[in-house]
Amino acid sequence: MRKSDRQVEIDMSDEPMTIKEAAEFFKVDVQAMYKRVQRKMVQFHKDGRRLYFFKKELIAGLKAK
Fold it and tell me: What range(s) does the Helix-turn-helix domain occupy (predicted)?
């Protein structure tokens, strides 16, 4: 695998995820994901009213516990 191909894979995993995608990642329903956000159990970002998550941050949060 060339370095440029590897870089593309890394960039793809760093794209923001919606709350629905984050819920699928955790294998919970969307409402449970909102509760995790409300309790500040996961790191999230807001753009207006929309919530975004990064897979790297979600994984880091799991490892920290």
Answer: 17-60
- CA separation (Å) from 59 to 2, 16, 25? 26, 13, 10
Number of domains composing the chain: 1
For 13, other C-beta atoms within 10 Å of its C-beta total 10
Please write the tens of the pLDDT for every residue from 9-60.
Answer: 444 567 999 999 999 999 999 999 999 999 999 999 999 999 999 999 999 9
Residue 42's domain comprises 15-64
| Entry pTM | 0.74
In a domain, 50, yes or no: yes
Does residue 40 form part of some domain? yes
